[in-house]
Amino acid sequence: MAFSHVPVLLQQTIEALRIDPQGVYVDCTAGGGGHSAAILDRLQTGMLVDVDRDPQAIEALRARFAGRGNVRILHGNFFDLPTLLSGAGIDGADGILADLGVSSHQLDTAERGFSFHQDAPLDMRMSMQGISAADVVNTYPKAQLQRILYAYGEEKYAPAIAAAIVRTRERAPIETTLQLAQLVKSAVPAAARRDGHPARRTFQAIRIEVNGELERLDEAVQTLFGVLRPGGRLCIITFHSLEDRIVKKRFAALCTGCTCPPDFPVCVCGKTAQGRLPMKAVTADETELEDNNRSRSAKLRVIEKIG
Question: How far apart are CA 291 and CA 193, in angstroms?
Fold first, then answer.
C-alpha cells in the first residue's frame, strides 16, 4: 500500500536530533517513514524504532524498511511508548520525534474521511478503531458539540454550527464529509466563508475529539521525555496553537529549577531543571512553504535532557 507523506521541517528536525550513528532513535508518528528514512541514513550500528497507531502506516513501514535489521516497527499509540519499548526489549532512546500532524495519506485518501474537500463517509479515526466522526456528529448533545468546537477548533460560530448539526440530524443522519462541510458553510455568516474554508475549524475539532489528541498530550510529553537517555533530545512538531501551548508549557516546566524566593540563603524546594531548550521554536522557511503548503502552520520545539 502506498502511504505518502511529505515530512515537514525535515532538515531542521534531523539537525535538532543530533543523531549519533550508534544511538537509538524513535519516530513516534512514523506515518510513511519520511523522517524515519532520514534518521536511518545517518545510523550505522544504531537502531530506529518506528511507532504508529494507523494500521495502514504500519503496513507501509514494513514494506518500506523490509530487510533492514536495525529497524523495529511497533503498532500502537505513542502515549504508551514506555510499554511499547519495554515489550520490544528497548530501555531508552537517544532521540525521539513526534510529528502531531495528520499525514498526507490520511488527508488525501478520501475514504478515511478527514478532508472537507472530498466526499466520503465521516470517519477521521487515525487508528481505524473506536468512535468515528459520524458518531460524534450524530450522537453528541448540542452542548457537548458546542464545547468541542470552541475548545478544539477555537470556532467562534460554535453555537450556530452545533445547532445546525442537531437540526439536520433530526431529519436524517449526517453521514458524509461534504454533508457536514456544506452544513457548516450554511450555518456561518457570509463573511466567514471568505476567510478560508468555513468547515476547517469544525473538522479539526471533531478530528481531535475522535482521536483524543489533546486529552493526554501533556502527560505524553512528560512520558516521552522520561524515555530519553541523558543528553537525548525530544523533538515535537505541532500544527495548531492548542498543541503548541501544551508542548511549550510542559517544556518550560521541565526546564524550571529552584523556585525558592531569591532571598533564601539555601534551596529548600529541592527542584532542579531536568532539561534545557537548545534552540528557539522553528517554522518552515519560504522554500519549504512554496514546496509544501501543509508546512505553513508547522512548528518544531526541542528539549534536551540534562545529565
Answer: 26
Residue whose C-alpha cell reads 495519506 in the numeric block: 105
Q: What is the pTM of this model?
A: 0.90
Q: Report the 10 Å Cβ neighbour count for 32.
A: 22
* Amino acid at the residue 234: L
CA distances from 221 to 70, 100, 249 (A): 26, 12, 10
Tens-place pLDDT, residues 148-167: 999 999 999 999 999 999 99
Strands of the chain, DSSP E: 24-27, 47-52, 71-75, 93-99, 228-238, 275-276, 282-283, 299-305
Q: Are strands 299-305 and 275-276 parallel, antiparallel or unpaired?
A: antiparallel
Tens digit of pLDDT for each residue in 191-238?
888 777 899 999 999 999 999 999 999 999 999 999 999 999 999 999
Strand partners, 238: 299
3-state class (DSSP) for residue 122: coil
Helix, strand, coil percent content, the chain, rounded in steps of 5: 45, 15, 40
- Domains of the chain and any CATH numbers: 10-100+214-305 (3.40.50.150), 122-211 (1.10.150.170)
DSSP for 63-121 reads HHTTT-TTEEEEES-GGGHHHHHHHTT---EEEEEEE-SPPHHHHH-GGG---SSS--B
